[in-house]
Design brief:
Blueprint lengths: L1 E2 L2 E2 L18 H16 L4 E3 L9 E4 L12 E11 L3 E6 L9 E6 L1 E7 L5 E7 L2 H12 L11 H16 L9
Antiparallel strand pairs: 1-2, 3-4, 4-5, 5-8, 6-7, 8-9
Family: Belongs to the polypeptide deformylase family.
EC number: 3.5.1.88
Catalytic activity: N-terminal N-formyl-L-methionyl-[peptide] + H2O = N-terminal L-methionyl-[peptide] + formate
Length: about 180
Amino acid sequence: MEVDGVVLSPDPRLRCECAEIDRITPEIVALAERMRRIMFEDGGCGLAAPQVGENLQMVLVDTTYTDATDYDPYVLINPVIVESSDVLVPYTEGCLSIPGITCEIMRPDRVVVEAYDLSGDLLRYEAARDLFCVCLQHEIDHIHGITMFERLSGPKRMRALKEYQEALARGARPGETA
């Protein structure tokens, strides 16, 4: 199911390992622009290609914008976490594909990510103990078929799934959190 161009859980497209992008084509640039528009319209700070129905390893992240004048998300193609801390910290996360709820997820407090940009340049992103760090990990999870639900223990997962079903029944839309 899709709402406002965003694939909603439990759509099977969110559970697939995504294909690497081997060339930056006009179609890839157009996909990045479509994702950029959807992410902004829904008030997200990150979005992965499978969330818009594309089985490709591309994510967008912008955790600092305040309005359209400073909105300029990073486009990460084939992102890989090359380093991560052993220290796990809780962070409350939402997801455009799982509207209406938030979940407390344990994640490494520091990561280093390598990815290509739309010019084909390999870039390195370092993040620690902030929303950017969490968002990188959350979006990279998406391109490997992992949603917030898979990061929760059994009882917490069951509670989150119930809350999500209730949120959908209330009409929750992408960008809405608890």
